[in-house]
DNA replication and repair protein RecF
Amino acid sequence: MWVKELTVINFKNYDEASISFDSGVNAFTGDNGAGKTNILDALHYLSLCKSYFNPVDSQQIKHGAEFFMVQGVFEKNNQDDLLACGLKRNQKKQFKKNKKDYQRLADHIGAYPLVMISPNDSVIVTDGSEERRRFVDNVISQTDNHYLDDLISYNKCLQSRNSLLKQYGHSSKLDDDLLNIYNEQLVTIGEKIFEKRKVFMKKFVEIFNQHYQYLTDDKEFVTLTYESQLLNNSFIQLLKDSLAKDKILERTTVGIHKDDLLFSIHDMPLKKFGSQGQQKSFLIALKLAQYSFLSLEKGFKPLLLLDDIFDKLDDKRTTKLMQMVSREDFGQIFITDTNLQRVENTFKSIQIDVRIFEVSNGEIISPLMYHGQDK
């Protein structure tokens, strides 16, 4: 699978741009704020129906415009598919494949898988467990059509149970029959999600370890561990045991919405004891493992988007990364960097072709160029 063409209209800082891509490595260079990352985000929209960076769709419309449109031609199984996403102010987002609307956007998720590696990923290490659960859920959702539906159902039931607990806080009366119904629903859906996460993590950790060892020449010992209250307890018993606490706090304190991933380096928490370079390598290994997992599960290669990843990696790790992703087991790749010379030198050193676009103020201003191996 690869993207042949991309067109954007009134998208972020672009009035209009049309780009034809190479099936291998494509790089965008230019100053910060020029619009390099916006091209990657447009691809993310077409793959996952939303921005990678901002959940508010209306904020993707260029200032002063009334709509945005993103359109791309994807080749998959030797067939071209035209994907289009558009939004008019104060209206519902539209998403089409070959000019036909999807009844549910969830039906599109996973059909054109994509992995983005970005400086924003640092929140997976530095922020709370919600970011790490979101990472896990994003990967599984692209391989399991029912997983996203289960998550939505679980969160609706969780909201209902929390509302019931809040009512108790105001009235000191609890509808036990309704509570039991919510408990049963949470357990049924929650256990299903837990089992899927557990199976996923067993496969994923092994792939992650391989990528991290490659990036660091096997010189650092790291661990990735799935943590869930359900690993050692039955969900229904957890709910019963926590009821007194839940009444006081007016929210559900146990369940798969408390799951987490534990990151460590040399048996110490990565967040506290990992250097910036080590944290960056850990995150890149996570995302490359996501890519490999999706590739194995889907039977074809996802898109790989690398946004401004050179700045916090030393030259050795950068070269190792580019060597890895430019091998035949990776497909189409998109890269952004502020330094044109760095992109040229990196790919010349590993003798890989790259198509380079220069970006300035929301415009692709230079003709495409090839650098890398001699043909």
User: Anything to note?
Assistant: The chain has a mean pLDDT of 92.
